[in-house]
Write a structure and sequence with these properties.
Belongs to the glycosyl hydrolase 76 family. The chain is an all-alpha fold. 48% of the residues lie in helices and 1% in strands. The longest helix has 20 residues. The protein binds 2-acetamido-2-deoxy-beta-D-glucopyranose (5 copies).
Length: 462
């Protein structure tokens, strides 16, 4: 947070010299208008990225590691939908630099990462494969990097409590080791389902189904009312529930179910039912009362926005919700009418928040407010979410399903990727360097001073 404030000042200052004051505008039914708005927002996002303290380390953000993966995922979609390749070199540099032993578990950070942190990079890699994002020779293929994440996560499937499930964090000394959460399980579920559709290898589909079925035995996926609890604990055998409602938890299960529906040729009704059920319960993120008269048409992170308590992680979730849901409209016939109208009105509201900073373009957190954020809170995360919803609307125009190995996808499968990894042993505590501790310390500080109880259930950055 301290960093963001510093960056906003710096960025505002440098752009003010150019003397252009503008606001982003968009006609959501006009593809070119969407592209122009997306270009402005993506450029502002990359200005934040390029001014970070750790800019000598490709793909590493200050104070967080996972957001690199989710930002590249969003930018890869941006390239695919607009053809604007100006950020491709930065995407490639960051993705390859952080690839670890082809598993996105680089030793600099692996001591304190969670399964959710790692899986976002895997989702970025499968996204790249599905759109034939350019690969560099001498580097592992995008799909193999996604397989590397799958191959390192599956051995962590934990049957010592709750009869299964992915723990949130990986090492016993991490506080999140004792919880199993929706995004770690839903993230691997989605990754497995996408690998199944891309490679047609049934092993991935079996894992996707295993994760879904297991989740349904816990509060993480309550099929009775399609509620998704954020987390549950090993201690209670996964019977208790941290009930904060987050957009990305719903979106990751919806998306995985959409891919499984397509992979199974629609023969298993459970996937379509899952998509429909969870789309129904996701309506809660389009509040109908209050919210500046949003009237059920503006996507909101309802747990933190009304009380102004969204942390940097949470400010990005709407990017994934928008992008992933729009994506499945291309592979699950009949979902477009359920998904797109509200993403259309949400995009309109989202760009109305982009009036901040010295360039007059920086976006706010609360789309329904139709106002930007206070100057000291303007940051990369808000840009990412708005780019996500603009991408989502561009998917309507592109209307092209994800590629797969038997349907134009050129990224080559390597089912053994990541199995050579050297970082899968629990590290010895005194090997955690001062630098790592400092990173963790900053996060702890934010948690304690912020919103400790709620955030305990969240991705801890890393
Ligand atoms: C790991 O840390 C070193 C030292 O700061 C840095 O040079 C290197 O780029 C980092 N690697 C990754 C993958 O971030
Ligand atoms: C889906 O249909 C295709 C084409 O008929 C077939 O090759 C494939 O095996 C089917 N997939 C599944 C999972 O049944
Ligand atoms: C799967 O997606 C393709 C688009 O690639 C679509 O034509 C097909 O109808 C989908 N299959 C099912 C069962 O919905
Ligand atoms: C399918 O994936 C599994 C798990 O990674 C792997 O062991 C197997 O070799 C793969 N099969 C093919 C035909 O690629
Ligand atoms: C594992 O490492 C060896 C030696 O470096 C290499 O020859 C092999 O291709 C690697 N396997 C995989 C699956 O990456």
């Amino acid at each position: 947070m301290i960093c963001s404030r510093w960056l906003a000042t710096l960025l505002g200052g440098s752009l003010a010299i150019q003397g252009t004051l503008a606001a982003v505008t968009v006609q959501v039914d006009d593809e070119n208008s969407l592209k122009t708005a997306a270009k402005t927002v993506a450029s502002d996002m990359m200005d934040f990225y390029n001014s970070r303290d750790s800019k000598d380390i490709p793909g590493k953000f200050d104070g967080t590691w996972w957001e690199g993966g989710s930002m590249f995922m969003t930018l890869i979609q941006y390239w695919w939908l607009t053809g604007d390749s100006q950020f491709n070199a930065a995407i490639q540099a960051g993705m390859y630099w952080q690839k670890g032993d082809d598993d996105f578990f680089p030793s600099n950070y692996s001591q304190y990462l969670g399964n959710d942190d790692q899986v976002f990079w895997g989702l970025a890699a499968i996204t790249a494969a599905e759109v034939n994002f350019p690969e560099l020779s001498g580097q592992p293929s995008w799909v193999s990097l996604a397989q590397g994440v799958f191959n390192t996560q599956v051995p962590r499937w934990d049957t010592s409590s709750c009869h299964g499930g992915m723990r949130w964090q990986i090492w016993p000394y991490q506080s999140g080791y004792l919880t199993k959460n929706a995004i770690s399980n839903g993230g691997l579920f989605q990754l497995a389902a996408r690998l199944a559709l891309y490679t047609k290898n049934a092993t991935y589909a079996e894992w996707a189904e295993r994760i879904w079925d297991w989740s349904a035995t816990t509060p993480l996926l309550k099929q009775k009312n399609w509620n998704i609890a954020d987390s549950t604990t090993c201690e209670t055998q996964c019977t208790d529930h941290g009930d904060w409602q987050w957009t990305y938890n719903y979106a990751t299960f919806i998306t995985g179910a959409g891919y499984m529906h397509n992979y199974t040729n629609g023969t298993a009704t459970k996937w379509k039912e899952g998509v429909q059920g969870l789309l129904g319960s996701s309506e809660q993120f389009y509040p109908t009362q209050g919210y500046n008269n949003a009237g059920g048409n503006v996507l909101s992170e309802i747990t933190c926005e009304p009380i102004d308590k969204c942390d940097r992680n949470q400010k990005t979730f709407k990017a994934y919700f928008s992008n992933w849901l729009a994506l499945i409209t291309t592979i699950v016939p009949g979902t477009s009418d359920l998904i797109m109208p509200k993403l259309r009105t949400s995009a309109q509201a989202a760009v109305e928040t982009c009036t901040g900073g010295s360039n007059g373009n920086l976006c706010g957190t609360k789309w329904y407010s139709r106002q930007t954020d206070p100057a000291n809170e303007l940051a990369l995360e808000q840009e990412m979410s708005v780019l996500g919803v603009l991408n989502a609307n561009l998917i309507r125009f592109k209307n092209q399903a994800p590629l797969s190995a038997d349907n134009g996808g050129t990224s080559k499968s390597n089912p053994n990727a990541g199995t050579n990894s050297t970082n899968q042993q629990a590290p010895i505590m005194n090997q955690v360097t001062t630098g790592d501790r400092a990173g963790a310390g900053i996060l702890t500080f934010v948690f304690v001073t912020g919103w400790a109880v709620a955030v305990t259930w969240m991705i801890r950055g890393g």
